[in-house]
Design a protein that fits this description.
With 274 residues, the chain is of the alpha/beta class. It is 52% helix and 15% strand. Strands 3-2-1-4-5-6-7-8 form an eight-stranded mixed sheet. Helix 4 links the parallel strand 4 and strand 5.
């Protein structure tokens, strides 16, 4: 059984770990988390957890760091890399979910020949409904790519990217995407409340509309455009609303396009600064 050393048990790291645990895939998971509260939470969640790699190697009989999964924030990565430098070997596979840290950054920080996969999952991973885009360096073998796929697909669906540049697009679409969706529900509920509904009813209407629509879309092999048209009766209320929402100048498309562009540019700036 291969060892997976997960660095970082914050929101994304814990989402990944919980997804792995519920899927019962055949890896040995160990958590490294320097913050005591998060370290204790990892223990409560059923994982062996350690404050650093030195403690892990001292307490356990682990000799092979087969896969090092980096789920720490980009600004914490340099310190994380320092403690890894003397412990990994040429067969260790690195998987990083840090936005803005390129292959080149890791090659300069560790070794030009390290095997690394960059992945961008999202928080629905914690309930097994994540989506992850990932890419690899040329020296990652097909077997190693397959092992990464097992980890990433156990928490949802995956998209393999042929170019590292596409990871910034994935970051802006699906990595940040849950926040867009949550905000949509938040706004819809607030408007319903402002129109006179009780707060709990407003939240329920907004949430269940989103969940039900997503499940309908998922359950039917039908294009979303067709489903949208099915709901839109000629001269009806939905058509009136969509005239505003689909306005080429001020509607949802130009708003989301500018939103995605800003997120992508931020990811690209993170890359250029590193």
């Amino acid at each position: 059984m291969k060892n997976v050393i997960l660095f970082g048990y914050g929101k994304m790291g814990s989402s990944l770990a919980k997804g792995w645990k519920s899927s019962k895939i055949d890896f040995n998971f160990l958590i490294i988390e320097k913050e005591e509260t998060l370290k204790k939470q990892a223990l409560i969640d059923g994982f062996q957890s350690f404050k650093d790699i030195k403690e892990l190697l001292t307490i356990t009989n682990i000799k092979n760091l087969d896969i090092i999964f980096l789920a720490v924030k980009p600004q914490q990565m340099s310190l994380t890399i320092k403690q890894i430098c003397e412990t990994y070997n040429q067969n260790t596979l690195f998987i990083s979910i840090a936005a803005g840290l390129s292959f080149r950054w890791f090659q300069k920080s560790l070794n030009k020949n390290i095997k690394i996969i960059r992945a961008m999952p999202n928080t629905p991973a914690s309930v097994g409904r994540g989506i992850t885009g990932y890419c690899k360096t040329d020296n990652v073998t097909e077997l190693e790519k397959s092992e990464a796929y097992k980890l990433l697909s156990s928490i949802g669906k995956t998209v393999f990217l042929n170019s590292e540049t596409l990871i910034d697009v994935v970051t802006s679409i699906s990595g940040s995407g849950p926040a867009y969706v949550f905000y949509f529900v938040e706004v819809l509920a607030q408007i319903a409340k402002d129109e006179g509904l009780e707060e709990k009813d407003a939240k329920l209407l907004a949430l269940e509309t989103l969940i039900g629509s997503a499940q309908l879309l998922d359950a039917n092999n039908i294009d979303p455009k067709t489903l949208r048209q099915n709901v839109t009766s000629p001269a009806g209320t939905t058509e009136a609303a969509l005239e505003k929402l689909m306005c080429p100048q001020t509607g949802l498309f130009p708003l989301l396009k500018s939103t995605i562009d800003l997120a992508k540019k931020r990811a690209q700036n993170l890359n250029s600064n590193n």
